[in-house]
Write a structure and sequence with these properties.
single chain, 321 residues, alpha+beta, eleven-stranded mixed β-sheet, eight-stranded mixed β-sheet, 5 helices, 19 strands, 47% strand
Length: 321
């Protein structure tokens, strides 16, 4: 596909962004590599404003499958948050927790392979799928990712899932089996949800460790069901792009902005009483480069988000975890 590179150079006082006093002006640049006019004219998919709610039935089904049907005895406690726990004497065997902000945590301690990170350099790299097969495993990272997505889709009907990072891990004792760490992104009707490193309770996410006997630990916020949706019109990508070209320095505070992807995604926000709102956004994703006081620079992956129905700025998000 033909690519168009739009480059805008602008000078502005760095103090306007950082609040620090500067005697000289800093020069900044933005480059947006985007599809050409033919791709721009492609039909925009139908998008919605969506209301979601916590799915208690899905949580109970997960508890049934992971704890209740597997073990003769377990303890259930809901004084602070919901917890199913299996214990032999002082030894934990398995546990499933669901916190007040609806994050699920599961551990099968009997099959726990937790060990040493082998691929620390890729811990925050979106799209990294390892080629390394850990010790004692006979399946690939792609197959590990499929295990995670298939597991999640047993309990969630509103989303499908795709893995966006899979790392190979080994234990310190390399005679013991290793495992994969897999990270999954949710999609609504084929459109991905925004990934946010500062996720808190707004982020829909899932992360699992997968060893020779399958998933032995799982964390995430994903047990939701759809309550309602309303179709919305979408502001053109070109309209939003023009705003970004004119305002990128004030929006990001970066010295250089390199946008290599423009996509429709969904942004999630929490409401009261266990409800979530989900809105379509134009996500301008790429690399932000920031200048340090000593003249050095550092870069981060980021997404600059605009509400797709109004064309107004939503936020700047950093993909993660």
């Amino acid at each position: 596909m033909k690519r168009v590179v739009i480059i805008l150079l602008a000078a502005f006082l760095l103090a306007a962004v950082t609040g620090c006093q500067r005697e000289t002006e800093a020069q900044t640049s933005i480059s947006i590599t985007a599809a050409d006019a033919a791709a721009e004219a492609e039909e925009t998919p139908t998008v919605y404003n969506v209301i979601l709610r916590r799915d208690e039935d899905a949580l109970l089904q997960m508890a049934e499958n992971l704890i209740i049907s597997r073990y003769e005895e377990y303890v259930y406690d809901d004084e602070v948050f919901q917890q199913w726990q299996v214990q032999t004497g002082e030894k934990l065997v398995a546990s499933l927790d669901c916190s007040s902000d609806w994050m699920v945590s599961y551990t099968d301690y009997e099959n726990d392979c937790n060990g040493t990170h082998m691929e620390d350099d890729y811990m925050i790299t979106y799209g990294y799928i390892t080629d390394t097969i850990p010790n004692g495993l006979d399946f690939t990272a792609e197959e590990a990712g499929e295990q995670l997505c298939n597991f999640l889709e047993q309990y969630v009907s509103v989303f499908t899932f795709q893995t966006y990072r899979v790392l190979a891990e080994n234990q310190e004792d390399e005679t013991q089996p290793g495992y994969y760490s897999a990270f999954a992104q949710a999609l609504y009707k084929g459109i991905p949800l925004v990934l946010d490193a500062n996720s808190g309770e707004n982020h829909i996410w899932a992360y699992a460790n997968i060893g020779p006997n399958g998933i032995f630990s799982l964390d995430g916020t994903f047990l939701l069901r759809e309550v309602s949706r309303v179709e919305v019109d979408v502001v053109s990508q070109e309209t939003v792009r023009e705003h970004l070209l004119e305002n990128y320095a004030a929006i990001t505070g970066a010295s250089d902005v390199d946008i290599d992807s423009i996509e429709l995604e969904y942004f999630v926000d929490t409401e009261d009483d266990g409800y979530y709102s989900m809105f379509p956004v134009w996500a301008f994703s790429g690399t932000l480069t920031f200048a340090n006081d000593d003249g050095t620079t550092y870069s981060m992956q980021a997404s600059i988000l605009y509400y797709a129905d109004t064309g107004t700025l939503c936020d700047v998000y950093y993909p993660g975890p």
